[in-house]
Amino acid sequence: MRRTLFEPFKIKMVEPIRVTTPEFRQKILEQAGNNPFLLHSSDVLIDLLTDSGTGAMSDKQWAGIMIGDESYAGAKSWEHLESVVKELTGMPYVLPTHQGRAAERILYNILGGVGKVFISNTHFDTTRANIEFTGSTAIDIIYEESKDPELDLPFKGNIDIESLKQLITQYGRQKIGAVIITVTNNSAGGQPVSMRNVKDLREICNQHNLLLVIDGCRIAENAYFIKHREDGYAHKSYLDIAKEMLSLGDAFIMSAKKDGLVNTGGLLTLRDEALSVKCKNLLIISEGFTTYGGLAGRDMEALAIGLTEVFNEDYLHYRIRSTAYLGEHLKAKGVPVVWPIGGHAVYVDAGKLFPHIPIQEYPGQSLVCDLYTHGGIRSVEVGSVMFGKYDEDGQLIPAVNELVRLAIPRRVYTQSHIDYVLDVFDAILELRDQKRGYKIIYEPPFLRHFTARFEKC
To answer: Are residues 63 and 34 in the same domain?
Structure first.
């Protein structure tokens, strides 16, 4: 019997949402340079910009905050977090940071440099920026069929093993800073990575003495897909699946603001002692002492609890199915989405939704602006604004796909909020042929999507 999916939690606190008009939203969006990143959150009705640090914490996490130990060195909350992380990762050296990109900066500043190459299934925006800032090159390799948004494959986030072998031959071991596997693969539509793929990757890294970094900020969500899609894992718990995957890595980077179920925090864990010493030295200079790394004791306590709660079966079923609910209903309306639906977000193919808008006029940016104007929904472009480059003549080298990400915060919105999002898409579909593109009038050299400003074409 099919039952209505319900949220496996009760609401103990509420935050009011201020309802605004389309006219008001159009005005302040123009003032923000037609960039939803530059809006005030108080002017947003449904905030799907990111799932990073935007979730709601549990009663146990809030209780943990009250007993957080704020000692500068060797706090009890640090000991709790260290114990949980070591059990999860199997790695002996644990470095807390204030968020994930700080962990990336520390590790890739040490491993990177001019002439170095980093290879990944897909580098996300901050990963790529931290790597390229050192003078290194970031290369993405997913299977060609995974680039087709409509193709239904169980593990479209996998790294292309044959392409990896070719790149190792092309660049040589000494030039490769690390191989990075991102689970789930955020930039490729939130798609999962199979255990078989990571095992194959481990074998290749062993053969060539390469460092394997697991970027696992959504490791629990990825474990869900492995349990339900990959042979041999149906009987295993989500926690055991995650531990098996992390056992294959040399390093683990996590933005704890995702599957850590907290509002701030990051982690860097390592197997190699010599590398850990270098990372600790850089952490002390830039983040704080090694037993707090820029985090308050209360935040470490909440993170230790969150890393346990995230593997709860009822929570993960709700998390994955509630995201799929939005994606499946959008597809039924005729909205082109990346298929199958990933764990943390629904990715709309704006290039196919607005085929009359040239790529040089950023159809994804048009959609994020329309979602806000029509319904007060904040989302993010994951296409040629975020990942586009310029050639020597200043012409745009577009991204593989022109996507818009609707990232679902954890334990924040109910089904009625999601149904409202679906209603807003009805209005966009009615006027889709009248939509116009945008041009960039200001952009910074790195991570331009955060602060770029746009005008309608």
So the answer is: no
User: What torsion, rounded to 10 degrees, do the Cα atoms 153, 157, 162, 165 define?
Assistant: -170
- The CATH number linked to 433 is 3.90.1150.10
The token duo for 333 is 């309306």
CA 140 to mean position of chain CA atoms: 16
Q: Exposed/middle/buried for 144, CB within 10 Å: 0-12, 13-18, 19+?
A: exposed
Q: pLDDT tens digits for 168-203?
A: 999 999 999 999 999 999 878 899 999 999 999 999
CA distance 77 to 65: 10
Q: What is the CA radius of gyration of the chain?
A: 21
Peptide bond into 184 cis (omega under 30): yes
d(CA 50, CA 30): 21
Q: Crossing angle for the helix pair 22-31 and 363-375, nearest 10 degrees?
A: 140
pTM here is: 0.94
Helical H segments across 262-362, by residue range: 273-286, 297-309, 313-333, 350-353
Overall domain count for the chain: 2
Question: By C-alpha distance, which of 417, 388, 415, 390 is closest to 400?
Answer: 388
**356 CB neighbour count, 10 Å cutoff:** 12
Sign of CA dihedral 348, 442, 445, 293: negative
